[in-house]
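Lab notebook page, bench 4
Experiment: in silico fold of construct C2
Operator: M.H.
Input chain length: 512 residues
Purpose: comparison with the prior construct
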Amino acid sequence: MALSLIVALTSCDYLDVPFDNRTDIHTEEQINKLLVAAYTTSSEWVMAEFSSDNVDHMIGPGFNIDSSLDEEAFNWAQITGINQDTPHAFWGAAYGAIANANLALISIERLERENGGLTHTLRALRAEALMTRAYNHFLLASIFCMPYGSNAVNELGVYYMTHIESTVAPQYSRGNLADLFYNINRDIVVALPHIVDGHLAVPQYRFNRRAAHAFAARFNLHYRRFEEVVRYANVVLGSNPAAVLRDWQHGGSLQLQGDFRPNWFVMNNHANLLNTVASSRHFRILGPTGLATRFAHNQLIASTESSRSSTPWPGGHRFPSVGFAGGNPKIISFKFTEYFRITDPIAGIGFPHIIQVHFTTDETLLMRAEALVMLGRYQEAVNDMNTFMVNFANTTPRTLEQIVNFYNNMPYHTPLVPTPKKRLMNPDSGIVEGSVQENLLHAVLHLRRILTMHEGLRWQDIRRHGIEIVRRDVQDLTVIRTGDILTYDDPRRAIQIPETVAAAGVEQNPRR
């Protein structure tokens, strides 16, 4: 891969891999091993969480930030750092993974020519390479592009890399968002029929069949093709979704001390569809530590909007959230812990990592419920929500009327009188205020927010539905002032590309 492309599209760490080692691929086994590196090793979760409404600005002595990332993401400003969890790290890791996927595809094409066709294994590896290429571009779009909608042809995309660059100082156009989503969809459609699990030693850490269909469902949720969401989610969930969901009651019985709950969560092969290992300070920033307490998911948010707020379903729906005393304002969803990788055994130094759970059966069920709401198939959506909540909270089902009435009687959120019900401002949705559809959509988004805490998906729900955010300064669980507003059409819904990438000539996201 040319040096110029590395500067423009990937992080400097990519230079540590010799060129020859990346091109000397001659066997199915080598391609299989190469595809392990086609999954990004960086995480977007921290910047997405700080960009969302899952955090407030905490006022008081002793509160601190982990790095400038905390405050810059909270204020939807240019994130200037280049270390873990930053746009610089994420952009570089994603394009590095895409390069590996493309190298695998080139090698597969060569073997196909040499052997006069594709073996069953090569066909499966080709499908996985296409799926990872699509997924990494989708991740880049979910951070650095505006949400997909009717104006997508006029919105900036990111460059869709389908080859290994071999020219000096290439120039790249970001293209538009419509073309980007078309290319992602094309790779998914071509790959999906050939995704199999047989060549995967540990299917949970690669694009196995269920994980690939869960990604296809999520992509189509963003693409606003709701029939496709249902079709792909059906493959993941089968005829009895309750049988494939996470056993939350067992997880809730585990002790809070140590890593019992996080290890149970990330190692749950039953419900987790795709895991990857990412270099990240996620646990230190969003976990039960004394770090990064100035911008926090606090008791005010938890009790009125998210993990400790009331839902139409009776009983305990708060697992796995737990509060921490001693001046720490964080309310934690206890799902992740830190795995430290030592890079210098003598000095005892290295980098913290987390295991990211990208897709789960629970979240796929709620994706299907949302798609069913958008399709007007309301009772089916209620059935999915009931299946989720009976399992998640050990509660009793609610009727369509009970759920609709609960949210219909709930006032819309204001910064001073917060509720989970925030106006859905996306003009493409056609949602009628006060309708059955709107109230059921509030129910789905409420459950998604509780389920996916600390996973960055709330930011995506905010973007997709045009939910506005008002920043708040909070002291002793009281809002003392409000600040900046992220309107439904604010271009800051696309996080600014890294400064290093802009310096290489890539067009920046517009700002007002």
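Observations: The mean pLDDT is 91. The chain has 20 helices and nine strands.
Next step: discuss at group meeting.
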